[in-house]
Amino acid sequence: MKLIQGGKKDPDINEQDWKFINTSLRQCIAMHFITESEKEEILNYLETTEEADLTVRGLMAGSQSVTSFVLSLLQAANVQRNLKKQSFQSK
Predict the structure, then answer these.
(1) How far apart are CA 69 and CA 65, in angstroms?
(2) For residue 4, what are the β-bridge partners?
(3) 48 contacts: CB under 8 Å, gap ≥ 6
(4) pTM for the complete prediction?
(5) Which helix (H) or strand (E) holds 5?
(6) What is the C-alpha separation between 19 and 12, in angstroms, rounded?
């Protein structure tokens, strides 16, 4: 399902997984495991990743806990950011 909220396109992720992601991010912020800016980085990653639904399901399957799932999302977002930065610098 694709929705437009606040001018941004939500990733193509099923509603149940999307709720889980948002709940997980809120929990991790409340526990001070991630910051608000890291949450935004994760959401941006999900919005810009092709086949985000497959990525999310794969990370969920490999995670032992909510925090490990969120950490995996953050690592994936950092990898994507670094690849974009390298690509930009090589031009």
Answers:
(1) 6
(2) 9
(3) 80
(4) 0.78
(5) strand 4-5
(6) 13
Are 58 and 65 within 8 A, CB to CB?
Answer: no
- The pLDDT of 47-76, averaged and rounded, is 91
pLDDT at 3 > cutoff 70: no
Q: Six-digit token pair at 37?
A: 């800016």
> Are 59 and 24 spatial neighbours (Cβ–Cβ below 8 Å)?
no
- What amino acid is encoded at 13 in this protein? I
Judged on CB neighbours under 10 Å (0-12, 13-18, 19+), 57 is middle
Identify the DSSP state of 34.
S
pLDDT (tens digit per residue) in 19-36? 999 999 999 999 999 999
